[in-house]
Design goal:
This protein is mainly beta and 443 residues long. The protein has a single domain, classed as Methylamine Dehydrogenase, Chain H. The chain contains one helix and 34 strands. It has a four-stranded antiparallel beta sheet with strand order 1-34-33-32, with no helix packed on it. A hairpin with a 4-residue loop joins strand 33 and strand 34. It starts with 10 loop residues before the first helix and ends in a 26-residue tail after the last strand.
């Protein structure tokens, strides 16, 4: 028997089918409301769980507000290198020695199956997250330093060559905007506008679409990233000033005196702004007015006296009412929001990078080449691994995977891997010797 042709289905059949569907639909509410008698299994409707949004790291510390430090979960085990990618090296106008890998601040960006990172060898790279293989690279005129900022189908990258580049997701140049000097800090992109500070002493606002200048405001040399929070821009300068500005027109809302060269990116939490400077001092201000609330002077430091061996080049991270920041004296400091020391951890060397906190763990590199993972609660060591000779960039943490570069020319992905049990090899036991029989000589 052949299958009936749907096109030839009669009108009466369609009517029967329609009536059947109506009856089924009418019975569904009755069935759903029927009382379940004792002993019967309660049948609950199956609701499909919505997938979690993909974890990303789109710019320096995750967002223009600079308060998205990464995502877990962490696995038990110890830090282990999953893959490493070797970059080239380049010399520049201001550095005759060749640079490679990532330098300060140099945090990678992560989206989907790709890692984007600024390399001191003069290239912006896109790599596969799974194995670190190169997808593409874009060559600039000198070392890249700023964390790439991802906005939809565009990537904003910059560094030592005085240019801010807009790239497509396949690494093609869409436009570039030339500034007066270096741009080390990551751009903040809000409502199709790009905001960043430059070492040519200006705060910039550009159009994302074509890179056209909207405005620029004279503030002082800016090395760190700017923070965009609650419709305000906050930034620090090498001249020792702290600004709060209106992003609409670049006008100054208030200005406060730090008193020392500051490379930090401000953290703004619950109406308080936290920052640090090269004099080795952590400071807190009222975000609304710029009024100084407190200073915390790290060991060996002095207010307003910059010192490369004692100063702070990283940015404060605020996590559960505590502030985490490393210093050139080799200590990772944990402070409370009153500016009091809770604990400190001695690393192998100076800490120049910033220290993200994810699911109760603080992750940071040091200038001896170690990556450190410690407890955010008490500062106890969880795991550490030596990956290079100088790690002064900042780790990106996505899905419990750590992406960080070293100044030895490499970018790494690290994971927590269970410790391998030590296998004790039994030493072979020699078989017992047979007794030697002495034969009596016969005469």
């Amino acid at each position: 028997m052949t299958s009936p042709n749907p096109a030839s289905t009669s009108a009466s059949q369609i009517c029967h089918y329609s009536l059947l569907l109506v009856l089924i639909a009418a019975c569904v509410p009755f069935i759903a409301c029927t009382k379940v008698t004792k002993g019967e299994a309660e049948k609950r409707p199956i609701v499909a769980a919505l997938p979690a949004p993909p974890a990303v790291m789109l710019t320096w510390l995750g967002a223009p507000s600079r308060n998205s430090y990464g995502t877990g979960p962490w696995k038990d085990g110890e830090l282990t290198i999953t893959w490493e990618m070797k970059t080239g090296a380049t010399s520049g106008r201001l550095h005759k020695d060749p640079w490679g890998g990532t330098s300060w601040p140099g945090q990678p960006s992560v989206e989907g199956d790709r890692v984007y990172f600024p390399s001191a060898d003069g290239n912006a790279y896109a790599l596969r997250r799974s194995d670190g293989t190169e997808i593409w690279k874009f060559k600039g005129k000198d070392s890249f330093k700023a964390t790439p900022t991802i906005a939809g189908d565009r990537i904003i990258a910059s560094g030592l060559d005085h240019h801010v580049y807009c790239l497509s997701k396949d690494g093609k140049l869409l436009w570039d905007h030339e500034t007066g000097f270096e741009v080390d800090g990551a751009a903040a992109i809000v409502n199709d506008k790009i905001y960043f500070g430059g070492e040519d002493h200006y705060l910039y606002c550009l159009n994302l679409s074509d890179g056209a200048l909207v405005y620029k405001t004279l503030v002082g040399s800016v090395e760190g990233s700017i923070t965009f929070k609650d419709d305000r821009i906050y930034l620090c300068t090498e001249e020792g000033d702290l600004f709060c500005m209106n992003p609409a027109d670049g006008s100054v809302i208030w200005k406060a005196r730090i008193g020392a060269d500051s490379d930090s990116t401000p953290a703004v939490v619950d109406g308080v702004l936290y920052t640090a400077a090269e004099d080795g001092v952590v400071r807190a201000y009222k975000a609304a007015t710029g009024e100084l609330l407190w200073n915390y002077v790290t060991e060996g430091s002095h207010l307003y006296v910059g010192n490369e061996k004692r100063g702070i080049w990283g940015s404060p991270v605020v996590y559960k009412d505590r502030i985490y920041i490393g210093a050139s004296n080799g200590y990772l400091h944990c402070l409370n929001t009153k500016g009091e020391l809770v604990w400190r951890y001695k690393a192998h060397a100076a800490i120049w990078g910033t220290s993200p906190v994810v699911d109760g763990r603080v992750i940071f590199g040091d200038k001896a080449g170690w990556l450190n993972m410690i407890s955010a609660e008490d500062g106890k060591l969880i795991s550490e691994i030596k990956i290079g000779d100088n790690v002064n960039s900042t780790p990106a943490i996505v899905d419990g995977q750590i992406y960080i570069g070293a100044f030895n020319g490499k970018l790494y992905r690290l994971d927590m891997v269970p410790k391998k049990p030590k296998v004790e090899v039994e030493k072979p036991v020699a078989p017992p010797r047979k007794p030697v029989r002495k034969h009596r000589r016969t005469q």
